[in-house]
Amino acid sequence: MSVLPADKKQNLQASQALWVKFREADCGMYYSLTGGTMDILEGVGCELSMTAQRVQSVEWFAQNGAEDVEESAEQDAW
Questions:
Q1: 55: which of 44, 47, 63, 70 is 20 to 30 A away, CA to CA?
Q2: Domain for residue 1, yes or no?
Q3: Please, what is the angle between helix 38-77 and helix 6-28, to 10°?
Q4: 8 A C-beta contact, residue 65 and residue 8
Q5: Considering the domain boundaries, does residue 66 fall inside one?
Q6: Alpha helices per DSSP H over 1-78
Q7: Secondary structure (3-state) at 33
Q8: How far apart are CA 26 and CA 20, in angstroms?
Q9: Euclidean distance between the first and the last CA atom of the chain, given in angstroms as a whole number
């Protein structure tokens, strides 16, 4: 995140905090879905899957944010 401008970094941090709440709510139901022992594995699996998808999204944001910074620096140099 250090390559993102301050405003984009704040937006990403805010969206991440909301995403964590969403993940907890969405995957939370799996932890007590049937009352069986597999519920824990289902809940963890949900969190793992959602987190892997989120990592890809955050990496995309970081790369695109870095491109914006590089483009701005190039334009400022001209």
A1: 70
A2: no
A3: 170
A4: yes
A5: yes
A6: 6-28, 38-77
A7: coil
A8: 10
A9: 26
